[in-house]
Design brief:
The chain starts with a strand and ends in a 16-residue tail after the last helix. It has one domain (about 5-225): 2-enoyl-CoA Hydratase, Chain A, domain 1 (Alpha-Beta Complex), CATH 3.90.226.10. The protein has 11 helices and 11 strands. Helix 1 packs parallel to helix 3 (about 70-90) and helix 6 (about 140-150) runs antiparallel to helix 11 (about 220-225). By secondary structure, it is an alpha/beta fold. Helix content is about 45%, strand content about 20%. The protein has helices at about 30-40, 65-70, 70-90, 105-115, 130-135, 140-150, 155-160, 170-175, 185-200, 205-215, 220-225, and strands at about 1-5, 5-10, 15-20, 50-55, 55-60, 95-100, 105, 115-120, 125-130, 165, 180. A 7-stranded mixed beta sheet has the order 1-2-3-4-6-8-11, sandwiched between helices. Strands 5-7-9-10 form a 4-stranded mixed beta sheet. InterPro entries: ClpP/crotonase-like_dom_sf, Enoyl-CoA_hydra/iso. Belongs to the enoyl-CoA hydratase/isomerase family. Pathway: Lipid metabolism; fatty acid beta-oxidation. One of its GO terms (molecular function) is delta(3)-delta(2)-enoyl-CoA isomerase activity.
Length: about 240
């Protein structure tokens, strides 16, 4: 199944696999974010979810080129859709795994950390928070992703204030990534699907998983919950 030709969705056993398609940078603009959110919403009945990407990049962050040309009244849509996607993942009644098949920078890095587990390609790609190099501030909820998902202050400093580019072995050593996988994109995806299958096999109550996740990262949840798929404001999203 294709979602606006921006991502594909398939079932592998009990796992709902979403793949960002194409060889581009998978910049997060409203169209791609909306497509991902639709794909996440279609995961009902699965035991676990995996998000992966084709090509060199997992995601190279927000689509600043789109933002520079979009009408002012639509510019906030990108941040709102991203906040909504984080809310969707936190409220999802199943475990989630990010298959980091290539570079994950800025908002792409934040998207990785919004998952329960992270499997990363060992031979290529890095996590990189480019904001300090680009001269961009962090908005409140985005900063909260790193406060709650990277609790070690030194690791958080190195990502946010030094702009260190962390390859998989370093990210694993620092406890930011769960596992580094040798090989190509499909090897990483297969490893992530296998990890998701293990989690799905536990047979947990999905609603309990979601409520524990919200309770585990309460500050982040409080900042994004009003943008999620179940929030009343979701029905009034601006048209693009």
């Amino acid at each position: 199944m294709a979602t606006q030709n921006l991502c594909t969705v398939e079932r592998r056993g009990r796992v709902h696999l979403i793949t960002l398609t194409g060889a581009g940078e998978h910049r997060l603009n409203p169209a791609l974010l909306s497509a991902i959110r639709s794909a996440v919403a279609a995961s009902a009945g699965a035991g676990a979810l995996v998000l992966a990407a084709e090509g060199k990049y997992f995601s190279n962050g927000f689509d600043q080129a789109w933002a520079s040309t979009a009408p002012r009244h639509l510019q906030a849509t990108m941040g709102g859709e991203f906040r909504g996607l984080v809310a969707d993942l936190l409220a999802l009644p199943m475990p989630t795994v990010a298959a980091v098949t290539g570079h994950a920078a800025a908002a792409g890095c934040g998207l990785v950390l919004a998952h329960d587990a992270v499997i990363m390609r060992g031979s290529r790609g890095f996590l990189y928070m480019s904001e300090v190099d680009a001269g961009l501030k962090l908005v409140d909820f985005f900063a909260e992703v790193f406060r709650e998902k990277v609790p070690d202050a030194v690791n958080r400093r190195d990502l946010l204030l030094r702009g260190d580019r962390m390859a998989a072995p370093e990210a694993v050593r620092r406890g930011i990534v769960d596992k580094a996988v040798d090989g190509g994109v499909e090897d990483v995806v297969n490893a992530a699907v296998a990890e998701a299958e293990k989690l799905a096999a536990r047979g947990w109550d999905g609603e309990v998983v979601a409520e524990i996740r919200k309770a585990a990262w309460p500050n982040l949840w409080s900042k994004v919950k009003d943008y999620g798929a179940d929030a009343p404001a979701a029905a009034a999203r601006p048209r693009l």
